[in-house]
């Protein structure tokens, strides 16, 4: 097994187990068993659990934002794309393995006790905000920054609410609030 395959198997196992059970509930031996990669190779590639968690979050960030961007780009109306974010969230919330925001979950478990994980979480949130700012700007809002920040708060709130309640409709409520914000900002 080459390095790329080992890394892929380890990160796939880490993502599945950490997202479903939580970071602290999953030990390195469980990841080794789920991945089929030797413990020696696991520690060669990821010398600590913190390094593995950070790598898992960074990879998840790329995939999560990529899926969101692909969905939103398919929306024919540039003006409606900021709202399409919430449509995508509602679909995600309805998936059987939805467990909330992996980044908020990891931060909640590890907090500032893990600077590398905290930085990965902050980087993810900053990239999402940058993306939302671009969508709001393209939709014609003269000052997109504050509106994008409000949309980010609505999105995180919807994600957390859906995870806690199991109700995908939180995305619809957030979408309704986002529509009011966008309308007011464009006026």
3D structure, described in words:
The protein is 77% helix and 0% strand. It is mainly alpha-helical. Helix 4 (49-73) runs parallel beside helix 7 (115-138), helix 5 (81-93) packs parallel to helix 8 and helix 7 (115-138) packs across helix 8. The protein contains 9 helices and no strands. 30% of the residues are buried. The N and C termini lie far apart (59 Å). The chain is elongated, with a radius of gyration of 18 Å. The chain folds into 2 domains: 1-47, Arc Repressor Mutant, subunit A; 49-186, Orthogonal Bundle (Tetracycline Repressor, domain 2), CATH 1.10.357. The chain has helices at 3-21, 28-35, 39-45, 49-73, 81-93, 102-110, 115-138, 144-165, 170-186. Pfam families: TetR_N. Keywords: DNA-binding, Transcription, Transcription regulation. Residues 27-46 bind DNA. One of its GO terms (molecular function) is DNA binding. Residues 4-64 form the HTH tetR-type domain.
Task: Summarize the entry for a quick read.
This is TetR/AcrR family transcriptional regulator. Keywords: DNA-binding, Transcription, Transcription regulation. The protein is mainly α.
């Amino acid at each position: 097994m080459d390095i790329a395959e080992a890394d892929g198997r380890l990160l796939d196992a880490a993502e599945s187990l950490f997202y479903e059970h939580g970071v602290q509930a999953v030990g390195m031996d469980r990841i080794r068993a789920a991945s089929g990669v030797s413990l020696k190779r696991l520690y060669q590639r990821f010398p600590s659990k913190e390094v593995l968690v950070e790598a898992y979050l960074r990879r998840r960030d790329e995939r999560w934002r990529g899926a969101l961007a692909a969905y939103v780009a398919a929306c024919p109306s540039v003006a409606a794309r900021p709202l399409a974010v919430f449509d995508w969230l509602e679909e995600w919330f309805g998936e059987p393995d939805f467990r909330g925001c992996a980044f908020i979950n990891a931060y909640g478990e590890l907090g500032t006790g893990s600077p590398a994980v905290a930085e990965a979480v902050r980087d993810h949130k900053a990239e999402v905000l940058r993306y939302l700012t671009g969508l709001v700007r393209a939709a014609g809002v003269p000052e997109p920054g504050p509106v994008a920040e409000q949309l980010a708060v609505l999105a995180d709130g919807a994600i957390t609410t859906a995870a806690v309640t199991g109700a995908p409709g939180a995305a619809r409520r957030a979408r309704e609030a986002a529509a009011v914000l966008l309308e007011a900002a464009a006026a």
